[in-house]
C-alpha cells in the first residue's frame, strides 16, 4: 500500500482526537458557554434540599463527648444537652442512642444526627463491647441497601449511615489500651474513624507530643485505619493536605461551651488557676484543626468515602453472599 505523507498522519491524529475527545479550554472555545453556572445550580439545589451528616462519638464516660460535639456545632446538639430530664448513669451494656437536629446557616440546611454510645468501656469486663457499635453501623448499611434495591424506591433515600466516628482516647500519656486497639481495628474497616485525645489540657505540651507519637506508632503497628486513608487521596494537592492532617492525628482537643473575656474579646475556653485555655486557639489545643477537618474541608469527602468505599464494600459482600446462597438453593432443586 502507498505510504502516508506526514500531512496525512497529522490529519488522522487530529481526526482521532476529535472523535475520541480531548480537553477544550477557554482559548479553544469560540465563545462563552457558561459551564461554570453548573456550580450555581448545584449550590441552589443543595441549599433547597439540604443534606445529612451523621456523626458517632465513642469513648468511656467523663471524657467530654457531649461537650465537644456541642462546641463543634456551637449549639446544644448532644443527647445529654437536649434531654430535659437527662440523668448521668453508667449503662450496664453499650446502648446506642441518637438525636437529630436541623442546623441552618446562611441558607444552607443540614440534618445533623449525633449517635452516642453510653456504656462503652465503662464496665469491669469490656469484652466484646464493640459489637453493638459494629452492629449499628452495618444495620444502617443494610437499611440503605434494602431501600436501594426496591422496585419503587424513594427519589431521595434517607441516609442514616455513619459518616464519621470520633473515638475519644483518655489523656493517659501512655500507649493505646487493648480496648482502643480492638475497637479501632474492627471499626476502621467499615467506617471513617478520627481519634482524638480528650481533655488534652491535662497534659503538658511535651507529654502531649510524646503521647501523640506513641499513638501513631500503635496505629501503624496494629494495622489500624484512620481517616483520611492514603489510598483515597485523589491528587497531589489533596495528598499534601491529608499528609498534614495525618501528621496531626490524634487531635489533642479541649471542649467547652463557656465563654470568657480575654484581651477584650469573648472566647470559648476553660478557666484554670493559670489562665484561660482557649478552645479555638491552635497554640492551646487542636480543636480548630478537628473542626476544619470535620466541617470546613472534609465533610463532603467523609460522606463520599462512606458511600464509595465503606458502603460499597458492604454492598458487594451482601450481594455476593446472596448470589452464592441463591446458587446453592438452585443446585438443591436440580434433579439428581
Automatic annotation (TrEMBL):
SUPFAM superfamilies reported in the protein's UniProt record: P-loop containing nucleoside triphosphate hydrolases
Family under the similarity heading: Belongs to the TRAFAC class TrmE-Era-EngA-EngB-Septin-like GTPase superfamily. Septin GTPase family.
Classification via NCBIfam families: small_GTP
Protein name stated in the entry: Septin-type G domain-containing protein
PROSITE patterns: G_SEPTIN (PS51719)
Pfam families: Septin
PANTHER family according to UniProt: SEPTIN (PTHR18884)
Keywords: GTP-binding, Nucleotide-binding
GO biological process: cell division
